[in-house]
Amino acid sequence: MDTPLALSRLDGRIDYWPRFLALPEQAGLYERLAGSLAWEQEELVIAGRAVRVPRLVAWYGEPEAQYRYSGTDHPPLPWTPELAELRRRLEAATGHVYNSVLANWYRDGQDSMGWHADKEPELGRDPAIASLSLGAKRRFLLEHVRTGQRLELELGEGDLLLMAGACQHHWRHALPKTRKPCGPRINLTFRLIHPGDRP
Which CATH number fits the domain that encloses residue 74? Predict the structure, then answer.
């Protein structure tokens, strides 16, 4: 395993493994996950009206790894063989333990994720989030909330990004919409849920 590129040590750890998965493997994995995961399009209530989330999502993990965001509980589905094997490989590569994975399917350039930080109580004080991207490359942004420093990456095709330490307290991230032609992308974010830390 190649040593990751350390993108930042400022207020947290951000490491990057380009092509963590070789292209033939990631392409086959993308096709299997696209056709087999229990994808759904959620709705959020914003300012009193229901808004459809601009991407498809699926949540998998250990039974205790129930995740709550945007006021909704998300009980996990059991691990699939592909996701369980990826968890094993990412734990070996990153040195962190994960009991769940949130899958996001960005079908085209209009599917997106707004600026946010993953700091829900059940993730613990300094969560480690391993983000594996399959399929087409998309522009991924990180911004330091105090200095305004920005990092920009084109993530896809088997790339792996680790956000750990105090990263979620000091950095926010986003996957913006784009008008440029682009193919679909699946992003898998492996994380450790601490059920006892839920409010």
Answer: 2.60.120.590
